[in-house]
Amino acid sequence: xxxxxxxxxxxxxxxxxxxxxxxxxxxxxxxxxxxxxxxxxxxxxxxxxxxxxxxxxxxxxxxxxxxxxxxxxxxxxxxxxxxxxxxxxxxxxxxxxxxxxxxxxxxxxxxxxxxxxxxxxxxxxxxxxxxxxxxxxxxxxxxxxxxxxxxxxxxxxxxxxxxxxxxxxxxxxxxxxxxxxxxxxxxxxxxxxxxxxxxxxxxxxxxxxxxxxxxxxxxxxxxxxxxxxxxxxxxxxxxxxxxxxxxxxxxxxxxxxxxxxxxxxxxxxxxxxxxxxxxxxxxxxxxxxxxxxxxxxxxxxxxxxxxxxxxxxxxxxxxx
Length: 320
Description:
alpha/beta
């Protein structure tokens, strides 16, 4: 067996960071993507086509020791699909099952599956934290498809032919980030006044560099198989504290003005942006103590480091 790390979705936000870090550590990395693309230097690119229940993974996995599964149909705020759950299941559930079956056939030793904290639920209340022992509460088609994939992998792992590790990250940020985090970053940079000066929530985030480091640990640590891990930077922040931190990193002034969260939620309901406001106003805490106890892992980058790296990347992109 060759000591090759395979990464599905290698050209994505997390995939590129993981591949680059693994290469830096002297690992042999094979990036599996839907179509030909340029990956970090030293990464072999293997094209597998669309990810679903018919994907031919076996040849791409031949000789690999571990596969980290990142390829997914990601959560979309305003999904235009006529049947979102079917589309999420096609990629995230059926595609993952097919990957595991082909990995077994190819003799892969371990599969590290990157799921979602959404499997636990949409938010936490009071001072509570999500743990791996919580009763799953997937709250949308995306998180449901991820939970179904987790359950299928557990059944496959019970056959004893492959080790499975599950990781449920919260919101991931860092250089190359997109979505709502990128929009917030742009708003702060441009000095747009934001009505978020009175937020009282606390959310755990995860810097992409910390996630890459953790996934590499999960790929080799003897205690990892059979476990589900919740992981974060370890520094929960309110939305207004996050925005002020981004402003400092960007070298601009945060323009926040106080509006009561109840009024903001009402505004979201009236304008059809309930989910967007909910993410800005609700709490989402995770208990990542298990990774410290069982794997001896602590995030190598502090929240401040992650925000600065993200801000530096954003400013560099603006200059292009």
